[in-house]
Amino acid sequence: MMRNVVKCAMLDARTIRSYLKNMVFMLGLGVVLSLVMKSPTLVMTYMVVILMMVSTYPFAVSESNQMAPLYGSLPMKRWHLVAGRYLYALVMGILATAFSMVMMPLVTRLIVSPDAGDGTPFALLLLGLFLLVCALQYPIFFGLDYTKSKTFGMLPALVVFLGITLLPGLNKTLHLVDTHSLLSGDGAGGLWGLLLGFAAAVLVFYALSAYISFRLYNRRDL
Questions:
Q1: What does the pLDDT look like over 72-84, one tens digit per residue?
Q2: I want to staple 83 with a disulfide (CB 3.0 to 4.6 A). Which of 5, 25, 29, 180 is the partner?
Q3: Number of domains making up the chain
Q4: What is the pTM (predicted TM-score) of this model?
Q5: Given phi > 0 = left and psi -120 to 50 = alpha, else beta, which region is 135?
Q6: pLDDT of 174-183, one tens digit each?
Q7: Range of the domain at 175
Q8: Which residue has the higher pLDDT, 166 or 126?
Q9: How many CB atoms lie within 10 A of CB 218?
Q10: 113 within 8 A of 35, measured Cβ to Cβ
Q11: Could you give the CA distance from residue 218 to residue 42 in angstroms, rounded to a whole number?
Q12: What are phi and psi of 67, to 5 degrees?
């Protein structure tokens, strides 16, 4: 059962091999931009942008190559395909987060900047936001043709990252959270508590999204 899910995730990973050179180029560009802008955290932010593109590649490739009949002929149930797609996004997100966490201290040293601190909470937050966007997008793509729904499917990403952009200014105006004490040593426990709560909520929503995607995908005539 789980083996079929893993096989589907590996099949999705193989569909992006033609984009591998572009992905490597974009990764290098992200590091260069971080050095030029002298912002180590830009590596992590740029990784999320790449992830948002990579997460939709299997939908685009399968539709452009008319792979739906192939999926229908495989000796697997539809929920294997859905679960494999969600597993693919999760693994890609974890790998990208690990890469960005390795690159951030290296960039910090190269630009000879003061210690940027522990980037782990920020990296985990971005990973959670990426999974949240996937959880919002995937039911749309599974329920409709990718070509017809890609414009509407990109709205969740725009809403989430618009929120990221506006939240710091909103917090500064309304004083919702004391970020200084939260990020200090005394507030570290509270920060990790918030991250754990956020992670739990994202994982629950991610699983619920997978169930909704299966229900929608099961209604489609492939």
A1: 677 778 889 999 9
A2: 5
A3: 1
A4: 0.82
A5: alpha
A6: 444 444 444 4
A7: 2-219
A8: 126
A9: 12
A10: no
A11: 40
A12: -90, 0
